[in-house]
């Protein structure tokens, strides 16, 4: 479970995140939406140990991770993707995913990496180099690397960007599958485009200027007056 | 400096082995995203330790081992201090190792040279190349490469960049230590050769050969060794090295090995 309580992050005098609280239980997919600069990536960076909190707390699986280095947070069971692909560019697709699986142990990591690649429709690209991939393929490799870690908590920063319709369907199916697999996983997923996560998330949190301005089901959030004023526009799907 | 006669082929082998080992050490650190400009200092430490111990009657094998251990320990100390620094700071910190290269002294003499064999140093370099190739394919080796390519992403999958850099620097120093200890037995041994020249030669081997594989530095070492035994003055040889380094960086950034990769892919 990912438990963010009244988390605040500041850069100098600028409050990038202001008392944001989110709970994502095992088996749940929680969407984080908002325009550019809303604080989505700052929130994900804070959860993964990249930014220290000014106040509040974050725990993964019941254990607080405040002040821990990103690699320690990862070992505590959190995997993430980034707005940029951040792939290991001189490695093959398989080696990238293999790197994500290295905490699982050498005995099982290659089989795991191959099975994740297959589920994301990348089996035939396993031996391709990253520079040979199309943008949508790169996005899926980044996601495969996070999934292959077997972490119980996934923080996915715009994983649906650059995907075409068929890729979107594959990724949505995989995400629903891993959220509900044995024991379940807690998945936080962000996107600037609310349409992209429609039907995928159990709950949605809308951020604006570092604050959580609405939370609830997808329909509740997109109908929220503050969300329409700050982000979607009053004429969005009237 | 001793003036024992060494045939050109034997000298070529000696230089290949020594430069190859130092270059492999540089390569290991480079894979972690850091440029090591003072790896020859660890070779100098090992050479001085081995030479001093043999001159005092210590069995050669023990003296060689002690020299290698001394280099690896010094590498670990340097790595512990420098592994957490950024890329530029690490390179600058590695320049401080030149102080060792400038100050270290070593005895020479026939007692040392009777143990020297170019075949041993060549075998050591090739064995180290094979070992480095296997290391690069291991979990730890992949983790080190991940750190070098995207430190933030590597941390995101649980890899500790400081640990990986510390391992790489220590292993690099150990390989330089092997080069240094064995070089103390070289009939043309001159510890002042490690002053800057050893670092440039190691770096040149990596640049010429290519960073894509552990065999790149060894291939580069062949080229550096050939240039070193060419009938040039020290100054001319340094100028040739500098121009070749610049040319290789611009024209062949993947090193000579990349030519073979491209041909194989076709």
Account of the 3D structure:
The complex is a heterodimer of chains A (238) and B (266). With 238 residues, chain A is of the alpha/beta class. Chain A folds into two domains: 1-77 and 151-238, 3-Layer(aba) Sandwich (Rossmann fold); 84-148, no CATH class. Chain A is built from nine helices and ten strands. Chain A has helices spanning 40-47, 70-75, 93-100, 106-119, 135-148, 165-180, 194-197, 218-223, 225-232; strands at residues 2-11, 14-24, 29-33, 55-60, 63-64, 78-81, 153-157, 186-191, 203-208, 211-216. In chain A, strands 6-7-8-3-9-10 form a six-stranded mixed β-sheet, sandwiched between helices. A four-stranded antiparallel β-sheet of chain A has the order 2-1-4-5, covered by helices on one side. The longest helix of chain A has 16 residues, at 165-180. Helices cover 74% and strands 0% of the residues of chain B. With 266 residues, chain B is mostly helical. Chain A binds chain B through residues 48, 50, 69-71, 74-75, 79-80, 82, 86-91, 95, 98-100, 102-103, 106, 145, 149, and chain B through 139, 142-143, 145-146, 149-150, 152-161, 212.
SSE order and pairing:
The complex is a heterodimer of chains A (238) and B (266).
Chain A: E1 2-11, E2 14-24, E3 29-33, H1 40-47, E4 55-60, E5 63-64, H2 70-75, E6 78-81, H3 93-100, H4 106-119, H5 135-148, E7 153-157, H6 165-180, E8 186-191, H7 194-197, E9 203-208, E10 211-216, H8 218-223, H9 225-232
Parallel strand pairs in A: 3-8, 3-9, 6-7, 7-8
Antiparallel strand pairs in A: 1-2, 1-4, 4-5, 9-10
Chain B: H1 8-31, H2 40-55, H3 60-82, H4 87-95, H5 98-103, H6 110-113, H7 118-137, H8 139-149, H9 151-156, H10 161-183, H11 197-209, H12 215-229, H13 234-251, H14 256-265
Helix pairs in contact in B: 1-7, 1-10, 1-11, 1-12, 2-3, 2-10, 3-10, 7-8, 7-10, 8-10, 11-12, 11-13
């Amino acid at each position: 479970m990912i438990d963010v309580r009244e988390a605040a992050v500041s850069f100098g005098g600028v409050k990038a995140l202001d008392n944001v609280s989110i709970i994502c239980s095992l088996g749940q997919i929680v969407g984080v939406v908002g325009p550019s600069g809303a604080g989505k990536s700052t929130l994900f960076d804070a959860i993964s140990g990249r930014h220290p909190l000014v106040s509040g707390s974050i725990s993964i699986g019941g254990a607080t991770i405040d002040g821990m280095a990103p690699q320690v947070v990862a070992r505590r069971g959190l995997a993430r993707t980034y707005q940029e692909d951040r792939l290991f560019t001189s490695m093959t697709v398989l080696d990238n995913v293999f790197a994500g699986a290295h905490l699982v142990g050498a005995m099982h990591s290659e089989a795991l990496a191959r099975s994740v690649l297959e589920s994301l429709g990348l089996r035939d690209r396993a031996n391709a180099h990253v520079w040979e991939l199309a943008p949508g393929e790169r996005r899926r490799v980044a996601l495969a690397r996070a999934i292959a870690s077997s972490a119980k908590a996934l923080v996915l920063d715009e994983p649906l960007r650059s995907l075409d319709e068929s890729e979107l369907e594959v990724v949505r199916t995989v995400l629903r599958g891993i959220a509900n697999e044995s024991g379940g996983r807690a998945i936080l997923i962000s996107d600037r485009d609310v349409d992209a996560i429609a039907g995928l998330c159990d709950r949605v949190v809308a951020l604006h200027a570092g604050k959580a301005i609405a939370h609830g089901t997808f329909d509740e959030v997109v109908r929220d007056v503050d969300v329409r004023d700050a982000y979607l526009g009053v004429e969005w799907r009237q | 400096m001793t003036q024992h006669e060494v045939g050109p082929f034997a000298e070529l082998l000696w230089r290949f082995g020594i430069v190859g080992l130092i270059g492999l050490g540089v390569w290991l650190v480079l894979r972690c995203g850091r440029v090591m400009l003072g790896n020859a200092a660890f070779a100098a430490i090992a050479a001085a330790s081995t030479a001093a111990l043999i001159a005092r009657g210590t069995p050669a094998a023990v003296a060689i081992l002690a020299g290698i251990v001394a280099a690896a320990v010094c590498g670990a100390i340097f790595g512990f201090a420098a592994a957490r620094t950024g890329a530029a700071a690490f390179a600058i910190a590695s320049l401080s190792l030149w102080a060792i290269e400038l100050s270290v002294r070593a005895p020479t003499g026939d007692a040392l040279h009777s143990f020297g064999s170019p075949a041993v140093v060549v075998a050591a370099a090739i064995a180290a190349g094979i070992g480095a190739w296997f290391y690069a394919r291991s979990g730890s080796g992949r983790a080190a490469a991940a750190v070098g390519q995207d430190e933030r992403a590597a941390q995101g999958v649980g890899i500790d960049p400081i640990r990986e850099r510390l391992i790489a620097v220590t292993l690099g120093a150990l390989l330089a230590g092997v080069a240094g200890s064995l070089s103390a037995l070289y009939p043309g041994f001159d510890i002042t050769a490690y002053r800057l020249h050893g670092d440039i030669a190691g770096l040149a081997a990596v640049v010429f050969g290519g960073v894509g594989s552990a065999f790149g530095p060894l291939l580069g070492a062949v080229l550096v060794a050939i240039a070193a035994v060419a009938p040039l003055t020290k100054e001319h040889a340094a100028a040739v090295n500098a121009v070749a380094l610049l040319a290789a960086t611009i024209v062949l950034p993947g090193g000579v090995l990349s030519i073979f990769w491209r041909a194989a892919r076709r």
